[in-house]
Every structure is written in structure tokens, then in C-alpha cells.
Amino acid sequence: MIFPRLALSLGLAATCACVSAEHWPGWRGPRQDGTSVDRSVPTKWDSANEARWKTEIPGAGHASPIVWGNRVFVVSCLPEREERVLLCLDAATGKILWQDVVLKSMLEGKHPLNSHASSTPSTDGERVFTAFLDRKEVVVMAHDFQGKRVWEKRPGEFSSRHGFSSSPMLYQDKVIVNCDHDGDGYMVALSREDGRELWRIDRPNKTRSYCAPLIRTIAGREQMVLTGTKCVTSYDPRDGHLLWMMDGPTEQFVASPVYNDRTGWVYITGGFPDHHILAIQPDGEGNVTKTHIRWRTNRGVAYVPSPISEGNWFLVVSDSGVGFCFDAKTGEVAWQERMGETHASLVSANGLVYFINDDGVVRVVRPGSTYELIAQSSVGEKVFASPAISGGHLFVRGDKHLFCY
Length: 405
Hints:
- By secondary structure, this protein is mainly beta.
- It has a single domain (4-404), classed as YVTN repeat-like/Quinoprotein amine dehydrogenase (Methylamine Dehydrogenase, Chain H, 7 Propeller), CATH 2.130.10.
- The chain has one helix at 4-15; strands at 35-36, 53-56, 66-68, 71-78, 83-90, 96-104, 122-123, 127-134, 137-144, 149-157, 169-171, 174-179, 186-191, 197-202, 214-218, 221-228, 231-235, 242-247, 258-260, 265-270, 276-280, 286-287, 293-297, 308-310, 313-317, 322-327, 333-338, 347-349, 352-356, 361-366, 372-378, 388-390, 393-397, 401-404.
- A hairpin with a 5-residue loop joins strand 26 (322-327) and strand 27.
- The longest helix is centred in the N-terminal third of the chain and has 12 residues, at 4-15.
- Mean pLDDT is 93; it is low at 1-20.
């Protein structure tokens, strides 16, 4: 049974565009695609000092903040103590209410652009779920809203010289974690209540990837779409059985898929070593490599930042820092514009798309046939984490601080 608070939040977000505020419960928000129905999110400020609040976050991390009502949660790594911590802040004031050590362990090796706290937590309104790497073991933990540990599970090994960054995703009574790695890769669904294993998927090809799945009703059925380990796959999130798969189009992925309800297609961008953007018709069965690609391009491909689909448009910022806007139906490029090197994923609110580059420059753009810059601001420090939107506020995690605008 779907957890009632989460079901209410997702149902309202999906069916009532007039709602002016919603929770941001996990990676890429309530629909797992970076979009918000909020109509009152700020688009411009003159300086970082114009933030409603600004709180120094101990340690370092690239995980996004998540928001549920009057609480903001974020994870961080304190390298001098070899601790990975979960923090809870007051959404109105930015005051740190509590901090708990989730894991104390030798720091794993990682890519210079990764962090030791890159997995965005998730929440169902009662518990907060985190994922870290303890040397070679994945650690998934649940806390309550008062900071008390509820359960801890170690579902398996994970090996990658680039480090760990798999965000736990919620579906019904499940916490789902993707563990594609350089070994016997797997996905696992754990019980939200007590952490017991509900299903496990053996992943093919034994190749590291870092994509979080997109889980929603697509083409009239429940789907969990995932890019990684040399393929694109869709599973039924209820029991993990395979619905369809597509070979390639590349080896490794980081960016998450998105869905456009006007076209009914799923869009992916990746990756390494080959570069592709695909629009996929997601109603197939079995291997759909030769039958269900609606359009493909090698322009504007992003490896790290996840794209967004807003209205009739598909937007992405390339590895080289150029923003592209594509017609979601045809794949034609409407415009391209230099944004600066970017690792934060795109978000949108009130029909506007927010690009935040690594230098903390925020560009708010209206998708369309021509480039229309609505506003440009700065948070005043480096930004690698993707932002969150809730209650008319934009939450941005910088190198040292969490900002609320």
C-alpha cells in the first residue's frame, strides 16, 4: 500500500497544477524529473546576502537538499573525522536542529569531481533514507524526523574507482537503490518499514553507472526506467520484472531519465564514452533497440547534469557547458547558449527552467523557440549540488552553505 502522506503529495502534484507548494521529498523532487508546480519561486536576487537565510553546512558533499514541510534534510562528509552525517534544518530559519553520524569509515576512493556525500536522501514524511559506501559495502539507513536511527541494511558490495552516488528512491512501501558497479551489479528494493529485502534485480554487463531510476506511471503501466551498464531498461517497480530494454547507446551514465506527458516519451542523455540523446517510446516489450527510438542526436549531450522536459521542450546542458533547447517531438534544436561548466541538474517552476553552473551563476530561462533569459543571479560560491524547490523557496547547496531564496 502506498504510504498515505507520500501518496497524497504525489497525487496532488500530478493532478492539481493550481497547488502553490509541494514537498521536495527526494532526488529531483516529487515527480523525480526536476519539475515543480510552485508558482511563486524567486527568479532573481542581487546578491547572496538577499537569501532568506544562509546556513554553513559542516564538511562537504554534492547531494541535494530535500524538503518536507518545515524540515530540510541534507547529508555531508566530515573528512577529518571520516564521518558521513545527516542534518535536519528548520526550513523557515535555516537553524540546524540535529545532526547524526550515519557512517564512520575510511573514505573510499573517488573521482576528483565526486564527493563522499553525493547520494541525495529521500523521505516519506516520517522517515529519512540515506545511502553511503562503507569501503566495499553499500549502507542504507532510515532515521525518523527526530534523528533516531530506525534501521540499517547492507544490501551488497559496490566497486568503482569513481566512488559512490546512488540516491535511494521511494515507491509504495519500498526504498529502491541502484547499485550498478564494476562487478555483479544489482538493484534492490528494501522495505520502508524495516529494511527487509523485497526484491533484487541482477543487472547485466558489470559496468559502473550512477543513474537514479525514474519511477512513475508511463504508457498505462507502472515503470521504473533506468540507464546504465550499457543499456536502457524498464522494470515493474512492484516486483522488479523486466518490461523492456534497449542496447546501449553507451557504456556509462550519470544523468537520470525524464518523461514528457505531451509526447508520452522518455528522454535520456549520456554518457561515456559515446554521446547520445534519445527520445524513446516506452510502450514496448522485450528488446526495443530497433523499434522504439523516436529521435536521436549527438548534440548537447550531458554526462552528469540531468535534463528536464518542460511543456513542448526538452532542455539539457552539455558537458562543455552549453545549454540546448530541443523540440521534444522532433528533436530539432531551437537554440543553444553558453551557460558555463555545470554539474547541477536542471529544475523548473512556473514554466521557467533554472540553470546553475559550477560558479554559482543562476540563469532562469523560458523554454521556447528562441532563447529568452528571464533573470541572472549568483549564490556567491561554487555549486555542484542540484537545487530543491518547495513552499515558494529555492534551496541551493553551495560549497560551504545551504541557501534559501
